[in-house]
Every structure is written in C-alpha cells, then in structure tokens.
Amino acid sequence: MIRASELQGKRVRRENGEPLGRVYEIRLRDSQVTALICGARGFFQRLAGTEAGRRVDWKQVQKITPSEIIIAD
Predict the structure, then answer these.
(1) CA 7 to chain centroid
(2) pTM over 0.85
(3) DSSP per residue, 16-57
(4) Are 30 and 48 in contact (CB under 8 A)?
(5) Closest-CA residue to 36 (of 47, 48, 45, 27)
(6) Roughly how many angstroms between the first and final C-alpha of the chain, as a whole number?
(7) pLDDT tens digits, residue range 10-64?
(8) In terms of Cα–Cα distance, which of 72, 73, 61 is closest to 7?
(9) Would you state the pLDDT for residue 51?
(10) What is the C-alpha to C-alpha distance for residues 1 and 59, in angstroms, rounded to an integer?
(11) Are the beta carbons of 37 and 7 closer than 8 angstroms?
C-alpha cells in the first residue's frame, strides 16, 4: 500500500521518457486515488490558479519507483 503523501511532489513521466512535471494534487473518491494532477507549476501559481495542470488517470500508472511515477504512453 502506498500513502498519498508518498505521491505528492513525485516526478511523473511517460514510458517514452516525456516528463510531465511533479504531482501537486491527488484526486480521491471513496478513499481511493482516481487521478493525479501534475505539472511544472510553482506554489504561487497554484494559489493564483493561473495555469492548469495535466490530469493523469490512476489507471494509466504503470510503475511507481522511489523517485518517480511512470505512466502509459
């Protein structure tokens, strides 16, 4: 089992190596992770809501390593 706090801030990339940024929001439904919101946004940009992140469905996650999350292309 992995904790949501272990996902927060982790780098996300596609299997082909394309970086998607870092996880800054985790979407849950009934205590289950449904999606990750990731991107290169900084703290102040998130507060101001000036830039949208990229939504990654939890079903796309292929592998979680100590340093990153790898998703399907």
Answers:
(1) 7
(2) no
(3) TS-EEEEEEEEEEETTEEEEEEEES--HHHHHHT-S--EEEE
(4) no
(5) 27
(6) 24
(7) 999 999 999 999 998 899 999 899 999 998 665 555 566 555 678 999 999 999 9
(8) 61
(9) 57
(10) 16
(11) no
As beta bridge partners, residue 35 has: 27, 57
pLDDT at 7 (0 to 100): 93
- Sequence length of the chain is 73
**3-class SS at 64?**
strand
pLDDT of residue 33: 92
pLDDT for the residue 61: 97
Pairing of strands 32-39, 54-57: antiparallel
